[in-house]
Write a structure and sequence with these properties.
Layout: H1 3-35, H2 39-67, H3 69-89, H4 93-106, H5 110-121, H6 127-144, H7 147-153, H8 158-179, H9 193-204, H10 207-237, H11 243-273, H12 278-298, H13 304-315, H14 320-326, H15 334-365, H16 370-398
Helix pairs in contact: 1-2, 1-5, 1-6, 1-8, 1-10, 2-3, 2-4, 2-15, 3-4, 3-5, 3-8, 5-6, 5-15, 6-11, 10-11, 10-15, 10-16, 11-13, 12-13, 12-16, 14-15, 15-16
GO molecular function: transmembrane transporter activity
Pfam families: MFS_1
Membrane topology: Multi-pass membrane protein
């Protein structure tokens, strides 16, 4: 199958997935104003997407390995379209949270299904580059959910925007189902549920898996929580920017992340052939992302835009953890390996996104200002990331 015919439908779906994930950072203040939501309410609302996404990962891995990427993802996207329509109709926090959970469930296969399809159609030395191109599509979705979404809010309300998203998601489901052919390995295998669960247990019992899992939990998941909600809050309440200025910062960060993804897509295979494997790119990139977050949280430098740009560019290398995790397992376990890793990524994002909101509310209730509360929760996230990175480095040295 030509690469463009396989890549483009999956890329379009992942664009929408990332847009949904990031949109609440921009529309969050509108939701809070219109519906009188607290920081904890907003964190819970935004993180229901992540919780549903997270809970879907292990069953999703078994479905992908059994029925193939095209069938599974196109079916799930129908739930996302229905969730977007329900979000547009909702009148309060319960309805919004339920609708956002349906969206999270519906887009839960967008990246994992693509990885499964790529692993069946292309050799291992091309997987890092293909990961880069998929993440480029996601980066474009994240970019569209920043300053462009802020501009669109001036022309249409958030409800009208979600009606448009529902229609676009339905179109993506149809494109995937009709436009992508299943490779031979994607036909039902007849493997029983017990055998599939043994494969899942094999993954979670592997030292290889647990070398990378803490990075996904705290660094990739933590970045998603910051990008998806708390970046705008930090920029407005700590740095004192307007919402439009904060959205511009977020757009610049997302563009930098997109630049990293394009670079991975273009250069990862070439660099591997020249002795610079993806594991080194992963280690260097996420290590620098910790440094950038420390500089942001420390408020030691006045160049806020440059720091957020550098943070996005460095954090983009964290996506290489998916391919590095899957590389340690047989092809038959590829779907379950990547979804197991993704489970921890989204568990980390959910925990950070909601937990940061709860901690902010607690600190404010005890007399801290919102800005000081944000400083405390960013410092907590930073400490967890440093611990996870140290464990990753030590595990590599033992190997």
């Amino acid at each position: 199958m030509p690469l463009s015919r396989l890549l483009l439908p999956f890329a379009a779906a992942y664009f929408l997935s990332y847009f949904y994930r990031t949109a609440n950072a921009v529309i969050g203040p509108e939701l809070a104003r219109e519906l009188a939501l607290s920081a904890g309410d907003l964190g819970l609302l935004t993180s229901t997407y992540l919780l549903a996404f997270c809970l879907a990962q292990l069953p999703l891995g078994m479905l992908l390995d059994r029925f193939g990427a095209r069938r599974v993802e196109s079916a799930l996207l129908l739930f996302a379209a229905a969730g977007a329509a329900a979000f547009a109709l909702a009148g309060g926090l319960p309805g919004l949270a339920t609708a956002r959970a349906a969206i999270g469930l519906g887009v839960s296969a967008c990246l994992m299904a693509a990885f499964k399809a790529f692993s069946q159609c292309y050799p291992a030395d091309r997987q890092a580059s293909l990961t880069g191109w998929m993440m480029t599509a996601g980066g474009l979705g994240a970019l569209a959910a920043t300053a462009p979404l802020e501009a669109l809010l001036a022309l249409a309300g958030w409800r009208e925007i979600f009606w448009l998203l529902a229609a676009a998601t339905l179109a993506a489901a149809v494109w995937l189902f009709l436009g992508v052919a299943d490779p031979p390995a994607a036909t039902p295998t007849g493997i029983g549920l017990a055998a599939q669960w043994r494969g899942v247990r094999q993954i979670f019992a592997s030292r290889h898996f647990w070398r990378f899992a803490p990075l996904g939990l705290t660094l990739t998941g933590g970045f998603m929580a910051v990008q998806g909600l708390w970046s705008i809050a930090w920029l407005m309440q700590v740095n004192g920017y307007t919402r439009a200025e904060a959205a511009d910062h977020l757009a610049a960060m997302s563009f930098a992340m997109l630049f990293t993804y394009v670079g991975i897509g273009l250069l990862a295979t070439r660099l591997a052939h020249r002795g610079i494997p993806p594991i080194r790119l992963l280690a260097g990139g996420v290590g620098l992302s910790i440094v950038m977050l420390a500089l942001i949280a420390g408020e030691a430098l006045p160049w806020t835009r440059a720091l957020w740009i550098a943070y996005g560019a460095c954090a983009g290398f964290g996506t290489l953890g998916y391919a590095q995790t899957a590389a340690g397992f047989p092809l038959a376990l590829a779907g379950r390996a990547t979804t197991a890793y993704n489970l921890l990524v989204f568990a980390g994002a959910f925990g950070a996104q909601w937990g940061m909101g709860l901690l902010i509310d607690l600190l404010v209730a005890y007399g801290r200002s919102p800005a000081d509360a944000l400083r405390a929760v960013f410092a907590t996230l930073l400490a967890l990331q440093i611990a996870a990175y140290a464990a990753f480095v030590l595990a590599g040295r033992r190997r």
